[in-house]
Write a structure and sequence with these properties.
Organism: Zostera marina
Pfam families: LysM, LysM2_CERK1_LYK3_4_5
Keywords: Membrane, Transmembrane, Transmembrane helix
Number of strands: 20
GO biological process, one term: immune response
Mean pLDDT: 76
Radius of gyration: 30 Å
Shape: globular
Helix content: 10-25%
GO molecular function: peptidoglycan binding
Distance between the termini: 25 Å
Largest sheet: 8 strands, mixed
Low-confidence stretches: 1-41, 54-67, 385-462
Order of helices and strands: HEHEHEEEHHEEEHHEEEHHEEEEEEEEEH
């Protein structure tokens, strides 16, 4: 192969021996005819450099074409306390909501709430290519943060297809093989339940001192760190710090921990939903499906109201008041504005805690903004997900475009309640070796700058 290629790049009227070509001057060598009409001309030295480059590619391990393993952010941990995190998942085909729920062992209402989608039936079909944020419980396993689900294999499945297609690159085939003790990855029987480890991080539920929920995001081929930061309302520096990146360079398939601004709760430690944190622009269902909590745009305070998902909820009325959870009264006074609110204070021993507070504020608060709900998508217009921080409210609009604080907002019934969570973490690090990227060096199908370096090292002038 080398001989045919190399003789085509020789001069128009020359002949050369193989030994002469590679730098030997032995008189005992066989001559080869040279193509008298080559398409271009290269000097013998230049041809020698090309020959050496080909040897490097083939014999030296494939410098230019060797695959690089994707990198993922790993958070070491020692505590058994869990947190809620998110998985960035793109549907590989049309899937029912219940099928997505089964893949990640997360209830359907939690998936809809995390994406601000109007609750619907579990057999609702969502379109291929739709990006969803999947809530998952992030726990400590073998010293690192990890989420785990199970997958029942089908006849056509392979470990690579399960990892890259079905789970969208959130896990590798090697990780599935190791988690299940599979000796021969080519033998995957149908009907077997496999343990699937998924990436997640907690980082104490905060980012730069503010409440945050972390999204495991699989980098796409056209992604940049700056583009990802802009999409999720953060900065390049923040992403680099969260993922211990030495430079703002990522490769397709890498998994980043993306901090999402969130609303934190102040529930007592003995409440079952202690540590509940809701990402900005989304909802969470808690208290046995009796309460929905939202995090409005540019807000860090939870706003919780009753739902209609459960028929057996404890009282949600504040003691010695006619106000229900989520109700607020405002009264203008000479010294300021008197604000009385009935707020949700957690689920304690199966009972909803409703707290009545009254405060005198210098100015009356404006209308609270809550995330917009969108109907279940039927087509994907773009490959981006549903808006992270919507600007309008699904509640009743008022003159001037503001929205009222609802007396009681309800969500149509769905399947299961969401889990309550808490947070903890230690410092994180990025696993995987750095990669070589020669993109941009190619000129007219040759790596000219790299060849020049090789030639200089050889002491050759051409």
């Amino acid at each position: 192969m080398f001989i045919v290629f190399l003789f085509k790049i020789r001069g128009p009227t020359e002949s050369v021996t193989l030994n002469q070509f590679i730098g030997h001057n032995s008189p005992q060598s066989t001559h080869f005819p040279i193509n008298p009409t080559p398409s271009f001309f290269l000097s013998p030295t230049m041809a020698t450099v090309l020959f050496l480059l080909l040897l490097i590619v083939v014999v030296g391990g494939g410098v230019f074409i060797s695959p690089v393993a994707p990198k993922a952010t790993i958070e070491p941990c020692l505590s058994s306390v869990t947190c809620t995190s998110l998985l960035g998942y793109t549907l590989y085909t049309d899937l029912k909501l219940s099928e997505i729920s089964t893949l990640f062992q997360t209830d359907t209402i939690s998936i809809l709430a995390a994406n601000s989608i109007t609750p619907t039936f579990s057999d609702q079909i969502l379109p291929s290519g739709l990006f969803l944020k999947i809530p998952t419980v992030c726990s400590c396993s073998n010293g690192i943060r990890q989420s785990t689900t199970t997958y029942k294999t089908r006849p056509s499945d392979t470990l690579p297809s399960i990892a890259q297609t079905i789970y969208g690159g959130l896990v590798s085939s090697d990780q599935i093989r190791e988690a299940n003790g599979i000796v021969d990855p080519s033998l995957v029987d149908a009907g077997v339940s496999l343990k699937v480890p998924l990436p997640c991080t907690c980082f104490n539920g905060s980012d730069n001192g503010l409440p945050a929920v972390y999204l495991a995001y699989v980098v796409r081929a056209r992604d940049t760190v700056g583009g990802i930061a802009k999409k999720y309302f953060t900065t390049v520096t923040d992403l680099m710090n969260a993922n211990s990146l030495g430079s703002p360079v990522v490769d397709a398939g890498d998994i980043l921990a993306v901090p999402l601004l969130a609303c934190g709760s102040r529930f007592p430690q003995f409440s079952s939903d202690y540590g509940l944190t809701v990402p900005n622009g989304s909802y969470a269902i808690t208290a046995g499906r009796c309460i929905q909590c939202s995090c409005g745009p540019d807000d860090t305070n939870l706003f919780c109201t009753p739902t209609s998902l459960s028929a057996s909820c404890s009282t949600m009325q504040c003691k010695d008041s006619s106000l229900m959870v989520g109700n607020v009264t405002i009264q203008q006074k000479a010294g300021g504005c008197s604000v009385t609110s009935c707020s949700y204070g957690g689920l304690v021993n199966g009972t909803i805690v409703a707290k009545l507070t009254t405060s005198l504020q210098p100015r009356c608060p404006g209308q609270r903004r809550v995330p917009s709900l969108v109907p279940p998508p039927t087509v994907v217009v773009s490959d981006d997900f549903i808006s992270v921080t919507p600007a309008s409210s699904p509640m009743s609009p008022q003159p001037g475009g503001v929205t009222t604080v609802p007396k009681s907002s309800s969500v149509p019934a769905s399947i299961l309640p969401s889990s309550s969570t808490a947070t903890t973490a230690e410092n994180g690090a990025v696993s995987g070796a750095p990669s070589l990227d020669f993109s941009g060096l190619m000129y007219n199908n040759y790596y000219v700058p790299l060849m020049a370096i090789l030639v200089l090292r050889l002491g050759v002038d051409f």
